[in-house]
Write a structure and sequence with these properties.
Length: about 525
C-alpha cells in the first residue's frame, strides 16, 4: 500500500487487508475519509468482524463446484481491489454466493428431467399478464405461477438489506427543474411515479439538490422489478432483491415473450409488438433478456443480465437471447458468439425479472454500472469534463452558441468541454473514459442516455425535455437510481432542441458555482 501524507502505513500481515477494507468501505458508501481515519482502528475491528461473519456463513454453504466462480471473475484483481468500485463489485458478488448455488441446483434438477424442445406450434396460449403502458406485472403474479404452473421454477435472490446495502451507493438526491410547478400541474403522473418509486421530490432550488439523503430514504426503489403487491418492509429485514424463472420446453419470440405449455409470460418492460415465427433457432439453454424494439434498450436489458454474470460465465453453454447486440454487452466480457436474436426454441429458458418501462432499480442498475466501470479510474479528482451530447437527429438548434457558453464558464474553472456525438462515437472504450470523467452532462432528450452508467455518483445531468412531453422518465429514473443529480430543463411552448444558451446557462452556472461540493471525494482509491 502506498503511504500518503497524513496517513500512517498499516502494519504488515493480516491487518492491512482490513485496513484497505475500511478505506474502500468509506469510498463505497461515500463516507468522509477524514472521519473514517479518526476512528480507523475501531472501524478496522468492526469491518474485520463483519467480513469474517460473511465469509464464515458463505463458506459454510459453499459448494466446491462453485469455488471457480470467484477465480473466473478475478481478472484485473489488483485493480479491482484497489478501487472502491472493485470493492463494491466483489462485495455484491460475495453476497450472491448462495443465490448462485441455488441457481445451479435448480438447473441441475430441471435438466435432470430431460426436458424436450417444445412442439413447433402451441395450441393453447394463456396470457397470464396483460400489460399496461408502464406496469406489465399483475398482482400476486409469482404466487399464481407457483400454484397453477408448477413446471415453472422461481429462484429468489434474498439478503438482509442492512448487509447488502454496504456495497451500494449511500448518497441520493432530490431533483430539480426549470419549473417544478409546471411539471406538477401538467405532468403530474411522471412526478407521482418518481415520488412513489424513489421517494424523490422536485425542489425549486438547485441548492437543495446538493446535499444527499441516505439509502434508508430510498427503500421504495429497492422493490422496483418485483411484482405489483409484493410488499417488503424494513431496512434490516431480509429482502427479495430480484428473481429468476426457469421454464422448460419453451418458445421465445424476438421480443422476449416466453411460451411453454398453456402459459405465456410477458417480462416487465416497455410495450412489445405481437410477434410469432415458425422459423426458430434451437438451443438447449437460453437466457432471455430481449425486450421490445427500441433505439436504446440498454438501460432495460443490462440490469437484467448483471446479477447473473457469474452464473453465465460459469455455464458457458447457455446462449443469451437479446433483441440486438450492443457494444455495452461486449464490455461484460461475454463472447459475441453466445448471443442469439430472433425467435428461439429451447429445452430450458431462463427469464430474469424485468423492469417497468422507463424505470431503473437500485441494486441491479448499480451492479451494472460497477461492471461497466470496474476497469476505469473512478477518481473524483479526474471529474473535469463538461459534456454536451448530440446526435444527427437530436442536436440543439443553437448548438454552437451553447458550446461557446459552456466553454466560457468551464475554462475559468479549469474544466474541459467535450462535444460528444453519438454518430461519431465509434469506440466504446473512449466513451467510457469520457463519461467517467464527467462533472456535468448536458443533453437533449434521446441520445446516449445509457452512457451515464459510466459516470460517477454525484454527477450532474441536465436534460432538455419537450414541453409537450414533460420529464423524461428514463434519464430521470436512471440518474436517481445511480445517485446522480438530475435537472429537467423545459421552456414553455418549446421543443427541447430549441432551448437557447441562456436557458441552459442558469442551471449550469449554479451547479458550477458549487463545484467543490459536487466533486466531493466519493470514490478516491487509497
Amino acid at each position: 500500500m502506498t503511504k500518503k501524507k497524513g496517513v500512517s502505513k498499516a502494519p504488515e500481515g493480516f491487518l492491512p487487508f482490513f485496513y484497505t477494507l475500511c478505506i474502500n468501505f468509506s469510498s463505497c458508501t461515500n463516507t468522509s475519509i477524514q472521519s473514517i481515519l479518526s476512528y480507523k482502528w475501531i472501524i478496522v475491528l468492526v469491518a474485520g468482524l463483519f467480513l469474517l461473519l460473511i465469509s464464515t456463513q458463505d463458506d459454510a454453504l459453499m459448494d466446491n463446484s462453485f469455488d471457480e466462480f470467484h477465480v473466473q471473475l478475478r481478472h484485473d484483481v489488483s485493480l479491482r481491489w484497489n478501487t472502491s468500485v472493485g470493492y463494491c463489485t466483489h462485495g455484491l458478488e460475495m453476497m450472491s454466493n448462495s443465490f448462485m448455488r441455488e441457481l445451479k441446483s435448480t438447473r441441475d434438477r430441471v435438466l435432470g428431467k430431460k426436458p424436450p424442445y417444445p412442439p413447433s406450434s402451441v395450441l393453447g396460449i394463456f396470457n397470464l399478464k396483460r400489460r399496461e403502458a408502464n406496469g406489465p406485472h399483475i398482482k400476486n403474479y409469482l404466487d399464481i405461477t407457483s400454484k397453477d404452473y408448477p413446471f415453472v421454477e422461481t429462484v429468489y435472490f434474498q439478503r438482509e438489506t442492512s448487509r447488502l446495502s454496504i456495497f451500494l451507493n449511500d448518497d441520493y438526491y432530490h431533483y430539480s427543474a426549470t419549473s417544478c410547478y409546471t411539471l406538477g400541474t401538467v405532468y403530474r403522473r411522471n412526478m407521482d411515479t418518481i415520488q412513489q418509486l424513489y421517494n424523490a421530490t422536485c425542489v425549486g432550488s438547485i441548492t437543495e439538490t446538493l446535499d444527499s439523503v441516505p439509502l434508508e430514504e430510498r427503500t421504495s426503489a429497492l422493490d422496483i422489478g418485483m411484482p405489483v403487491g409484493y410488499a417488503q418492509t424494513g431496512f434490516s429485514s431480509i429482502r427479495h432483491w430480484t428473481y429468476l424463472q426457469m421454464i422448460p420446453s419453451a418458445n421465445i419470440n424476438a421480443y422476449g415473450e416466453v411460451t411453454s405449455k398453456n402459459l405465456t409470460i410477458f417480462p416487465s418492460g416497455c410495450s412489445r409488438p405481437r410477434s410469432f415465427s415458425i422459423f426458430k433457432s434451437k438451443h438447449d439453454e437460453v437466457f432471455s433478456i430481449a425486450s421490445g424494439p427500441s433505439t436504446d434498450d440498454t438501460i432495460q436489458v443490462l440490469p437484467r443480465l448483471a446479477p447473473y454474470l457469474q452464473f453465465l460465465q460459469h455455464f458457458t453453454d447457455i446462449k443469451i437471447h437479446v433483441g440486438h447486440i450492443t457494444p455495452f454487452l461486449m464490455l461484460l466480457g461475454i463472447p459475441r458468439e453466445r448471443f442469439v436474436t430472433g425467435s428461439v426454441a429451447t429445452k430450458l429458458a431462463y427469464v430474469p425479472a424485468g423492469l417497468p418501462c422507463d424505470t431503473s432499480d437500485i441494486y441491479s442498475t448499480q451492479l451494472t454500472s460497477y461492471y461497466l466501470r470496474r476497469n476505469l479510474p473512478n477518481l473524483s479528482s479526474m471529474r473535469t469534463k463538461v459534456i454536451l451530447v448530440s446526435s444527427s437527429t437530436h442536436r440543439y438548434l443553437h448548438h454552437d452558441d451553447i458550446i461557446e457558453m459552456l466553454q466560457r464558464h468551464a475554462s475559468i474553472r479549469g474544466l474541459e468541454v467535450i462535444q460528444y456525438s453519438t454518430d461519431s462515437a465509434k469506440n466504446i472504450n473512449a466513451t467510457q473514459e469520457i463519461f467517467n470523467k464527467a462533472l456535468l452532462v448536458v443533453s437533449p432528450t434521446g441520445p446516449s442516455e445509457a452512457n451515464i452508467l459510466f459516470c460517477q455518483p454525484g454527477t450532474v445531468v441536465i436534460q432538455s425535455v419537450n414541453h409537450v412531453d414533460g420529464m423524461n422518465m428514463t434519464m430521470g429514473s436512471l440518474s436517481l437510481s445511480l445517485g446522480m443529480r438530475y435537472y429537467a430543463l423545459l421552456v414553455d411552448g418549446q421543443d427541447s432542441l430549441e432551448h437557447k444558451p441562456e436557458h441552459i446557462e442558469t442551471p449550469v452556472l449554479e451547479y458550477l458555482s458549487n463545484i467543490r461540493k459536487i466533486r466531493r471525494e466519493h470514490n478516491q482509491p487509497f
